[in-house]
Amino acid sequence: MVEAEPDLAAAVARTRELIDGGWSEPIFEATFEHDGVLVRVDVLSPGSDGWAIAEVKSSAGVKDYHLGDLATQVWVVTQAGTPVSSACIRHIDSHFRLEREGEYEGLFRDADCLAALGDRIADRSRIVAEARAVLAGDEPDVGTGEHCSRPFVCEFSSYCTRNDPPGPEWPISLLPRTGRAAAAEWAQEGLYDLRDLPSGALTNAVHERVRQATVTGEVYHDRQGAIEATRGWAWPRAYLDFETIGPAVPRWIGARPFQQIPFQFSCHIESEAGELAHSGFLSIDGGDPRRACAEALVALLSGERCGSIIAYNASFEKRCVRDLAEVFPDLAEALLEIEAKIVDLLPVTRNFYYHRDQRGSWSIKAVLPTVAPELAYGDLEVKDGGAAQQAWFEAAGPETSEARREQWRAGLEAYCERDTQAMIVLLTRLTA
């Protein structure tokens, strides 16, 4: 690897020294400069007719914004006097499966993009010149828009919007799924607030429901519809929620990149008489949690131990259970029986309940404060799924103290249990 020490000028010089000296191995972080533009190439490999550039990405495919980055690298490297024979995006192969511990050959796939970069490479000098002109001139007068958040959120957004008047309290963009596009269309007519849209303007039934609840402040609640939708859910009812990690680099045999591996679940079982019992599973020792998780599920939920198994956005829980069945054939029959009993509370909520404070979302964290504010997540150490993943990685780390590990254990258990508590309260509220 070419180190950026003592500075990048030294890295440029060291790269040139390696290339001119006939270096025959891949160079990591090879550094080049041309016309004031400096690039560091992830992997530069020698070949018979030039050097191969590989830009390494953690995505499972090539994104359009990767190509501009790669084109700049090719332009700088070639203009600096080093011939380039190929240029690829080296991305994760989502079909890879870890078969043996430590054997990761095939984890990455190369997508050669050099032929597709011609116009972009030819345009680099113009782009650089225009960028210099912008830097040398006054602050440009450019309005904010979608370019401020795609493909990434700009870190200067707060600066560019500092003088903007406050936006509407209930923007049209709150409309689910197509709200941003709808907001852009209505803005052309000078309408920005959902409450200002004329009655009958929205033809989508869900959008109109959101508009009416926002205008009137009244909760939309079709109790009878929720009762009918859930009438067939059998007793005793189980409420199930998983927490998972999905690392790009698989940790355990049989796992794929980004595959969601359950390390925790919470389960409440409710009798028809209203009696509740809670059980859970949590593995934070850093080992493969799947076998123990699968066995705990089978012991708790297989056979006649429960009727319907209620989840929120149940496709996720179903996927987790099916993946466990694939890995453990001896448990597959019981696990697939469990998977078949999972029902989804999310569409019931979406179809029969809306409070304007949800602001266009039916995530359980948006709905719960409108139903049972005392069960919101603000008082928890772990407040969402992303934080749960971070907590697992720290708790499972060998350098983590036992006291800190136990702190994370308590935080994870409280968070996951809150999710299943929330489902119980929500279903009760919907059908009461």
UniProtKB/TrEMBL annotation:
<feature type="domain" description="DUF2779">
    <location>
        <begin position="239"/>
        <end position="363"/>
    </location>
</feature>
<protein>
    <recommendedName>
        <fullName>DUF2779 domain-containing protein</fullName>
    </recommendedName>
</protein>
<dbReference type="Pfam" id="PF11074">
    <property type="entry name" value="DUF2779"/>
</dbReference>
<dbReference type="InterPro" id="IPR021301">
    <property type="entry name" value="DUF2779"/>
</dbReference>
